[in-house]
Design goal:
CATH class of the largest domain: Alpha Beta
CATH topology of the largest domain: Aldehyde Dehydrogenase, Chain A, domain 1
Strand content: 15-25%
Structural class: alpha/beta
Bound molecules: nicotinamide-adenine-dinucleotide
Radius of gyration: 24 Å
Largest sheet: 7 strands, mixed
Strand order of the largest sheet: 15-16-17-14-13-19-20
Shape: globular
CATH superfamily of the largest domain: Aldehyde Dehydrogenase, Chain A, domain 1
Number of helices: 16
């Protein structure tokens, strides 16, 4: 086996690499080795801002997964035996290194997604903050102490690791997606294997480089690259992977739940959204427009928390629509720091967006602005789409019920609060929701009745903080929460402990 691996190993420059140089080929990082995939295959990663090839990437298969799981399984017990304070120290060191290399990481994120350096820096900072937050949990790592009905007996609950954690992520906010899973998985004493999103291999690779430099022991953290069915599926199916934490589409999430469920593995799913933002007749309309723009179009709408259903009271509908359309037409699309958002992640996504708009038009919807691919010198062959606002005809239209994950939002006219909340809740999803109102009673009623994992008053549908739990209902997830101390529940199991400390008197 070792010979085979050595024979297949390719030469990569990422050992102790300078992060600011993009390697021509992105390797897997298994144990202390940078490795080419065992079957020797690569795929081409495209630059979304130019439509041109950016680099080659390891195209892993079940054999690579098996190798990584074997190393992770061997390394995990020693990591679990390391105190959680020490594990937190090592994670803090990763966060410190990320801060030191903040610019380089943001450059990689910007290159692989096409988003501006400014946006990439914001996302990198959130990832670093997540590292510091989780590292601090190493000094708490609360379980529970409680009482017993029996004298001289103590009762408590402690956390224990699960073993090997399989982490599978989407490409939309890549370095944050890595941080949201890797930090808590490792703190809890698991060995973690991250299957990077095929569209964003660079930031995942950079995290792997820094994790090694920070002193994460060999085999405890692995980065694998490849396509979902070839590299992700074997991780889900592997009998030695105790927990799968997945961020991605409902379709793949459902398959993962079924497949891992068959062997009763723990599964955390963070899936899609079709998030409502309600604008009431007493809203500050300018503020509502500002937050609608951010919710609908920031990150090119590639957010699970994107505001894609804007529900507006009849009394202010026409005024709000005009203000929103005017503001949307002023948005600047491009990869620069003065632009409002960049390209979608790949050509397929571009085609999907245009197809969804076309089908909406055919079913009678009006496209108020946008709806097309942006062309011309500035855009070249990049995957840029104009900010698009659609007025669907029917709340049961495909464009209302399915997630698009692009810079497209829909406007709905409602009579009053009751109709607004009913429409907001009439969705296969339940991730985030927002309301704009100056009426505290309306705001509180909305918080109580909206069926979502996150509820926001007078703000956007997006914007999650590292110390706060994030997740959703229905097809948005399966009940677990990412980030916050709640993330520790995903990656640890609870052990109930009884101690009869004076058996003679118990
Ligand atoms: P996707 O499901 O196609 O891919 C996500 C990841 O899963 C990728 O790494 C991919 O390689 C992998 N994958 C694909 N098929 C697989 C399989 N059969 N087995 C194992 N892994 C497989 O999703 P996408 O289109 O890349 O991402 C967009 C989706 O992610 C949207 O639905 C969005 O809402 C969701 N998302 C959710 C959150 C959240 O926290 N709820 C955050 C970001 C994105």
């Amino acid at each position: 086996m070792v010979n085979t691996i050595n024979a297949q190993r390719q030469t990569f420059n990422s050992q102790g690499a300078i992060l600011s140089a993009i390697p021509s080929t992105i390797p897997n990082q298994i144990g202390s080795d940078d490795m080419g995939p065992l079957e020797g295959r690569l795929f081409t990663k495209m630059d979304p801002a130019t439509g041109r090839a950016l680099c080659q990437v390891a195209r892993s298969s079940a054999a690579d997964v098996d190798l990584a799981v074997g190393k992770a399984k061997a390394a995990q017990p020693a990591w679990a035996a390391t105190t959680v304070v020490k594990r937190g120290d090592i994670l803090r060191q990763i966060a410190l290194l990320m801060r030191e290399h903040r610019d380089a990481i943001a450059m990689l994120v910007s290159k692989e997604t096409g988003k501006s350096k400014k946006d990439a820096l914001g996302e990198t900072d959130a990832a670093i903050e997540m590292g510091f937050f989780v590292a601090g949990e190493g000094r708490r790592f609360y379980g529970q102490t409680t009482t017993s009905a029996v004298p001289n007996k103590s009762a408590m609950v402690i956390r224990q690791p699960l073993g090997v954690a399989g982490l599978i992520i989407a490409a939309n906010t890549p370095i944050a997606n890595v941080a949201w899973k890797a930090f808590p998985a490792l703190l809890c004493g698991n060995a973690a294997i991250l299957k990077a999103a095929e569209d964003t291999p660079l930031s995942a690779w950079a995290f792997g480089v820094l994790a090694r430099q920070a002193g994460v022991p060999d085999g405890v953290y692995t980065t694998l690259h490849g396509l979902g069915k070839e590299a992700g599926a074997p991780l889900v199916e592997h009998p030695d992977v105790a927990v799968i934490s997945f961020t991605g589409s409902c379709e793949v999430g459902r398959w993962i739940a079924e497949t891992a469920g068959r062997r009763l593995a723990k599964v955390c799913l963070e899936l899609g959204g079709k998030n409502p933002l309600i604008v009431c007749d007493d809203a500050d309309l300018q503020n509502a427009v500002t937050w609608t723009l951010g919710s609908a179009f920031s990150n090119a709408g590639q957010r699970c928390a994107a505001g894609s259903r804007i529900i507006v009271f009849d009394a202010v509908y026409d005024r709000f629509r005009n203000m929103l359309v005017d503001a949307t037409k002023k948005l600047k699309v491009g990869a620069g720091d003065t632009d409002d958002y960049g390209p979608v992640i790949n050509e397929e996504q571009m085609t999907n967006m245009l197809g969804a708009v076309e089908r909406a038009k055919q079913s009678g919807a009006a496209v108020l602005t946008g709806g097309e691919r942006l062309k011309g010198d500035r855009y070249g062959d990049g995957y840029f789409m104009a900010p698009t606002i659609v007025e669907p005809v029917d709340p049961n239209d495909e464009i209302t019920r399915s997630e698009l994950f692009g810079p497209i939002t829909c406007l709905y006219r409602v009579k009053d609060f009751e109709e607004a909340i009913a429409l907001a809740n009439d969705s296969p999803f339940g991730l985030t929701a927002a309301i704009h109102t100056q009426n505290i009673n309306r705001a509180m009623t909305f918080i109580g009745r909206i069926q979502s994992g996150v509820a926001v008053v007078n703000g956007g549908t997006y914007g999650s903080e590292p110390h706060m739990p994030f997740g959703g209902l229905r097809q948005s997830g399966n009940g677990w929460r990412e980030a916050g101390t709640q993330a520790l529940d995903v990656y640890s199991d609870l052990k109930t402990v009884y101690i009869n400390h004076n058996p003679n008197l118990t």
